[in-house]
UniProtKB/TrEMBL annotation:
This is DNA repair protein RadA. Residues 18-31 have a biased composition (Low complexity). It comes from Nocardiopsis sinuspersici. Plays a role in repairing double-strand DNA breaks, probably involving stabilizing or processing branched DNA or blocked replication forks. DNA-dependent ATPase involved in processing of recombination intermediates, plays a role in repairing DNA breaks. Stimulates the branch migration of RecA-mediated strand transfer reactions, allowing the 3' invading strand to extend heteroduplex DNA faster. Binds ssDNA in the presence of ADP but not other nucleotides, has ATPase activity that is stimulated by ssDNA and various branched DNA structures, but inhibited by SSB. Does not have RecA's homology-searching function. The keyword ATP-binding applies. Keywords: ATP-binding, DNA damage, DNA repair, DNA-binding, Hydrolase, Metal-binding, Nucleotide-binding, Stress response, Zinc, Zinc-finger. One of its GO terms (molecular function) is zinc ion binding. Residues 12-31 are annotated as: Disordered. Residues 43-191 form the RecA family profile domain. GO terms for cellular component: cytosol. A motif (RadA KNRFG motif) lies at residues 228-232.
Length: 439
């Protein structure tokens, strides 16, 4: 550049280097560095909350000084679950429940309905983070519950409640308070329309544990998943049942996903799905009927619609089953959502069973992924799934090839093609049906 942009003179601009970064002066340390073998872990050991399903997901319980973010849709039961946890922990020490969405009287009414009353459970209706810290200093709780973090406001920060600036400031203050005083803290978080946690993404990075509470509004089943967990695994789930008297943990929830019938019915097939590391027995139902419409219906509930359409196309192309002019309805039992490929074989067998009007035998399960070529592929944890089915009394299973050693108490059939599995629901000849009816 030969000419100065300010004085318009020529040859006056000189090249200069970037300023060197200023050196950081050393400052006093809060605590000296020690070998990792000398650091005590007693203060970081998890304390059981009293709810077994919650402890399973947390990895043993709540850690003193740990901050848990619990998110879920409105009405799923977050406040109800935490109120029961607060009442159980109050038996061991003071618990502070701070609500910014309800009055203390409203929380008291819900606690009476749930039977969650305790003299050491303290309630406070506050929306100021400064007032919340004052309550913490006065009560000195072992467990702090904030419902919810989006309603809290920092008086020193400009912004509306629930805004990015306010949430960042409030979360930072709560985490600092929990770490300094060694208080196990649970923050309730709102979710957006797409199911993500409202506020900045940094909120999930700051906390130690992120839990999602899921469930259909018209179903009693509630699932608790760990998205992030610094103190335990992230592939565990907790199962709860929402009742009139509160939320009850389900150590064995498979009964919710099975229909109670005495005789087998065409169009149903049982499978085993993995929720995290937990095998759950579920039932897939299909109804195939002649369609009076030019474009047959394809309706699903609890299953992926595109996956169902793919399985129907494989059945028609690879097995010769005519479904183009048929209405097909596919559903699950108990409001559970099945999205993993291990359900493919059970769905195909349920559809074939309904189309051929042949019921699968009692005590039968099917596990496997169906490929576009009509092959049955293996899935993760097949042996664990079959062992769970055997524990619940199932006696026969169809699984992909290379299963391995047999599981005592259950007869395992290994198949490589879809046609091999569908031989269980092959269409019977008319004469055989007539003679059987006469007998």
């Amino acid at each position: 550049m030969g000419r100065c942009g300010e004085c318009q003179a020529w040859g006056t601009v000189e090249e200069g280097g970037a300023p060197a970064p200023s050196a950081v002066a050393p400052a006093p340390v809060t605590s000296r560095a020690r070998p990792i073998t000398e650091i005590s872990v007693e203060s970081a050991e998890a304390v059981p909350t009293g709810v077994d399903e919650l402890d399973r997901v947390l990895g043993g319980g709540a850690v003193p000084g740990g901050v848990v973010l619990l998110a879920g849709e409105p009405g799923v039961g977050k406040s109800t679950l935490l109120l029961e946890v607060a009442a159980m922990r109050a038996a061991e020490g003071p618990v502070l429940y701070v609500t910014g969405e309800e009055s203390a009287g409203q929380v008291r009414l819900r606690a009476e309905r749930l039977g969650a009353l305790s003299d050491k459970l303290y309630l406070a209706a506050e929306t100021s983070i400064a007032s919340l810290v004052s309550h913490v200093d006065a009560v000195a709780p072992r467990l702090l519950i904030v419902d919810s973090v989006q309603t809290m406001v920092s008086p020193d920060t400009v912004g509306v409640p629930g805004g990015v600036t306010q949430i960042r400031q409030v979360a930072g203050a709560l985490i600092q308070t929990a770490k300094e005083r060694g208080i196990a803290t649970v923050l309730v978080g709102h979710v957006t329309k797409d199911g993500s946690i409202a506020g900045p993404r940094m909120l999930e990075h700051l906390v130690d544990v992120v839990l999602h509470f899921e469930g259909e509004r018209h179903s009693q089943l509630r699932l608790l998943r760990a998205v992030k967990n610094r103190y335990g695994p992230t592939d565990e789930i907790g199962c709860f049942e929402l009742t009139e008297s509160g939320i009850v943990g389900l150590p064995d929830p498979s009964g919710l996903f099975l229909t109670e019938r005495t005789a087998p019915v065409p169009g149903t097939c049982v499978t085993v799905t993995l929720e995290g590391r937990r095998p759950l027995i579920t039932e897939v139902q299909a109804l195939v009927a002649t369609s009076p419409l030019p474009a047959p219906r394809r309706a699903t509930s609890g299953l992926d619609t595109s996956r169902v359409n793919m399985i129907l196309a494989v059945l028609e192309k690879r097995t010769g089953m005519r479904l183009a002019n048929m209405d097909v309805y596919a559903s699950t039992v108990g409001g559970v959502k099945l999205t993993e490929p291990a359900v493919d074989l059970a769905l195909a067998m349920a559809a074939a069973s309904s189309n051929n009007d042949v019921a699968l035998p009692t005590g039968f399960i099917a596990i496997g992924e169906v490929g576009l070529a009509g092959d049955v592929r293996t899935v993760t944890g097949v042996r664990r799934r079959v062992a769970e089915a055997q524990r619940l009394g199932f006696t026969e299973a169809v699984v992909p090839k290379h299963f391995g050693d047999p599981v005592p108490g259950i007869r395992v059939h290994e198949v490589e093609e879809l046609s091999e599995a569908l031989s269980r629901v092959a269409k019977r000849p008319r004469r055989a049906r007539a003679s059987r009816d006469e007998d």
